[in-house]
Amino acid sequence: MLRTLGITFKNLFRKPFTVMYPKKEREMPKRMRSPLFALTKDKDGIINCIACRLCQNICPSKIITVVPAKEKNEKGKLYPEKFELLVEACLACEYCVQVCPTDAIVMIRVFGWATDKKEDLILTKEKMLEVYDNYKDLISESTASFLRKMQTPPRKKEAEK
Ligand code: SF4
Ligand code: SF4
């Protein structure tokens, strides 16, 4: 009893951990999974997605729809005519990001983009490209290549050197 009273007493003089959001924001952990998705572009501004549909097939909630365009783009690659993701049923499992061969789909690690409009939860290709334009500085640690590197066991990393 004395020990627990001691803990209570000690906490009386501890500084509070409360962060006064939205005036102040906590730093988000690097591995946070926030279901705000972006579709990335290459250095020439061309969408990186090659419409392979791997993300569509792996998604456990079946909320991704990719429709490839009939023709190829100026770089001779396939691209999606339609790309749609219904965020309302997203589990934030990140499978779609991890499986992407071209680092085209990424989850932006930001907090506080809640909405009360149902239509905002339908992410179209255009919206996801816009998210990329707004947050491109934040994506380097969100791509499939980065995640694969991070998950490589240390022994394998040694062998690759
Ligand atoms: S986002 Fe990636 S996995 Fe999904 S269709 Fe495009 S290239 Fe394929
Ligand atoms: S994070 Fe998971 S549930 Fe959400 S879209 Fe990607 S694969 Fe589907």
Task: Tell me about this structure.
This protein has 161 residues and is α+β, with helices and mostly antiparallel strands. The protein has a single domain, classed as Alpha-Beta Plaits. 29% of the residues lie in helices and 13% in strands. The strands form 2 sheets. Strands 2-3-5 form a 3-stranded antiparallel β-sheet. Strands 1-4 form a two-stranded antiparallel sheet. The protein is elongated, with a radius of gyration of 21 Å. The model has no long low-confidence stretch (mean pLDDT 90). The protein binds iron/sulfur cluster (2 copies). The site of one iron/sulfur cluster (SF4) has 13 residues, from α2.
Oligomer: single chain
Main sheet, how many strands, which sense, barrel? 3 strands, antiparallel
Radius of gyration: 21 Å
Shape: elongated
Secondary structure category: alpha+beta
CATH architecture: 2-Layer Sandwich
Task: Tell me which ligands are bound.
Answer: iron/sulfur cluster
CATH topology: Alpha-Beta Plaits
Rounded average pLDDT: 90
Determine and state the CATH class: Alpha Beta
Q: Please state how the strands of the largest beta sheet are arranged side by side.
A: 2-3-5
Strand content: 5-15%
Attribute tags:
single chain, 161 residues, alpha+beta, Alpha-Beta Plaits, 3-stranded antiparallel β-sheet, two-stranded antiparallel sheet, elongated, binds iron/sulfur cluster
Summarize the structure.
Helix content is 29%, strand content 13%. It has 161 residues and is of the alpha+beta class.
Detail the topology: elements first, then pairings.
Layout: H1 2-12, E1 37-39, H2 54-58, E2 64-68, E3 80-86, H3 95-99, E4 105-107, E5 122-124, H4 125-135, H5 144-151, H6 154-160
Antiparallel strand pairs: 1-4, 2-3, 3-5
